[in-house]
Predict the structure.
Amino acid sequence: MSLKGKKNSELRVAIIGGGFGGAAAAVALHSAGIKADLYEQAPVVGEVGAGIGMRPPTVKCFRDWGIYDAIVSKSTVSHYMQILKGNGEVKINEQWPLLTDNIDERWSRLIHRADFIETFMDHIPLKNVHLGYKCETVIEHDDYVEVHFENGEKVEVDLVVGADGIRSNIRKQFINDCEPVPAKAHAYRAVVDNLHTYDFANDNIFRVYVEGDVMVYLLPLEHRNQLSFDVTVKSEDISWRPEVTNEGILNLLKNFDPNIQKIAETLTIEDYTCRSLFDIEPLDNWSTNRITLLGDSAHAMLHHQGSGANMAIQDAHALAEALRDSDTIPEALQQFQSVRKPITDVYQKLSRQEPTQQSDTAFPEKETFEKAN
Ligand SMILES: Cc1cc2nc3c(=O)[nH]c(=O)nc-3n(C[C@H](O)[C@H](O)[C@H](O)COP(=O)(O)OP(=O)(O)OC[C@H]3O[C@@H](n4cnc5c(N)ncnc54)[C@H](O)[C@@H]3O)c2cc1C
């Protein structure tokens, strides 16, 4: 396959950002024979401790990229999600929706974020990963793009993929200078050891407890004997890294199941990653002729539907396919956007819908995306 006379292997691609989106894009492009280079500002690639649920359309990408076995060995299948009252009364117990044509795929695979990134990094040639490369300026020409880094280095490429997250500089420079929208909520996330001592894990159910303004997300990571523990609470404080105390978190949980309180009592404030939550409004457009956004830079969303990382990974797959199928880079970027944007627009909207005790489904996405049996 070729892009206007250029073999895939001759294409020069710079991916800016080594989060889920950037790392997945590197794996996807390499598996399509495109030797993309990944540039990450941090000196090491890593992810904060927390779990996420990988949905079947995401796992399908891993099959295509040849990393399915590696991911499966580091994840646990969950068949049900529950919404509960703080005291543990189950309001909804629902099977994961069918998002592919395979009727056996009513599940989600639960994985630790760090295992995910590690697997991606294991499948990108070392020489194509550049850490400590903060992208400073991008200059687009008719037939190439210059990328300048803070460390003084410069590269010239055919395509730039801006996977630089919700505060994307590439979005600001080329697409839209919109600011992230505060959700006026905080998320405090930790990973708890010895999962089985709390009786939450044996069934691998993903549980969301809701009481007043507080939500507790419990995601079992059985293969690690750990539990991902996420307390989300409304707050007017929109500082990026809010100041929180352990006593403050324990106080939020005083009306919750005693086992949840017990978990929080084993943690110190240093065990938590504390963040304010933001998203962005859907953009009209993700790309210029030779620059595209991907992942949170294109469509950051809240975590209520657990979809942001899934969307970033599926973007990577669609981008690789579009480059494989198109004659020119602008045509590929238009195809990429036309496949992905209608889906991410819906998830961005749905992700603002938080679970409540009155919700009639754990999966508002079903109405739009569930396949008929
Ligand atoms: C509390 C919470 C829970 C979540 N739970 C889930 C879940 O269960 N399931 C799910 O699918 N999603 C979930 N998400 C969403 C998910 O975390 C994000 O959608 C995902 O991390 C986005 O990946 P990304 O690669 O696009 O961006 P990021 O992960 O933000 O990565 C961007 C990368 O770009 C780098 N970078 C930025 N600027 C530059 C620069 N100038 N030069 C070089 N590098 C740069 C950054 O250092 C970073 O490594 C959750 C999010 C939150 C906040």
